[in-house]
Fold this sequence. Notes:
By secondary structure, this protein is of the alpha+beta class. 28% of the residues lie in helices and 16% in strands. It has two domains: 10-83 and 212-404, Beta-lactamase; 96-209, Methane Monooxygenase Hydroxylase, Chain G, domain 1 (Up-down Bundle), CATH 1.20.58. A hairpin with a 2-residue loop joins β1 and β2 (48-59).
Amino acid sequence: MGALQVEVDPGEVGLDAGRLERIDRHFARYVDDGRLAGWLALVSRRGKIAHLATAGHRDVGAGLPIETDTLFRIFSMTKPITSVAAMMLYEEGAFELTDPVSRFIGSFAEPRVYLAGPPLAPVTAPARFPIRMWQLLTHTSGLTYGFHYVHPVDAMYRAAGFELGSPPGLDLAGCCDVWASMPLVFEPGTEWNYSVATDVLGRVVEVLSGMPLDRFFAERIFGPLQMNDTSFAVDDDDLGRLATLYTPHRRTGQAFAVPAGATNRPFPFLSGGGGLLSTAGDYHRFTQMLLQGGSLEGTRILGPRTVAYMTRNHLPGGADLEEYGRPLFAETPYDGVGFGLGFSVVEDPAKQKVPASKGEFAWGGAASTAFWVDPVEEITAIFMTQLLPSGTHPIRTQFRQLVAQAIVD
């Protein structure tokens, strides 16, 4: 695979080059005033990269610039990859979407649901229904995240060592057993709640495939797609390419380096929900595979009907997240946005208040990385940076509107 570069004149694919430059000017100001250390933006249309720009530094202190091969912690942009892995096994008949998760992870056999009480003495009851596979893929399982700080069960996760990381010494199987021992926030299938569900899904991939998640990714997805820079850990030889992790100063808003932010492994276990590191070039290949219905350059990862099925709204009655979700953090707006099997899906662009296409699917990561795929306009877009947490600035909505205004055909 060659170096990442522009592949087509924007005008040949219905994009205005001058208008695309507005992206660069706009986000250059984020670097100039210190809100971001650096960033990379990529826009492709009809399978060709039409715009590629970088600004700022991957490591301000060392004076190292963002480059096209810079490595980024993509955190929750791992989730669509894990979802693809699971659906590859689904296509082989390894499971049905209605299967109970306990069929593959026994510790989930008797889930309990939180009813009342404090985290140290919760009142719970047996769940009326099992957690099913489709609920892991759609975040409707009743699982949660410790960093939400909303529900008593969130506090239970934190007390068990799950906030932004995990307890030392636990592998993915061990983490799943701990999560299974804690109550659910709600009955499976009745609400949407951003959660460790995709990590549990990664464990199911391990059980069904008989191989660790990193090996499955490498052999079944990254190798075939030539995503040679995507992994759960960075080799020492490549550590210099890894962007430093930043966070905004509480008073000034300027980005400063997170202590130990250059670590080469985001999580101590194989986190299918947030553990990968990648480059813009690698993730571009992944998004192109999705845009092209599961195939890239003659290599088929998924069937086109499976991709279409994954990227439709699976919330009951076509609801959006505002109607069906809980009012807490997620890597997507809630208004006008539904959820598929591993992706947010735009249901109503007018309600979302962003000039998107109905059916556009997307996700982002905790360090403000983001991507989307627009099958209507045949556009994929990727924004890479390293600012934790995401949502600090309206980067994603601004990037969307700046790409949309450059479409002129």
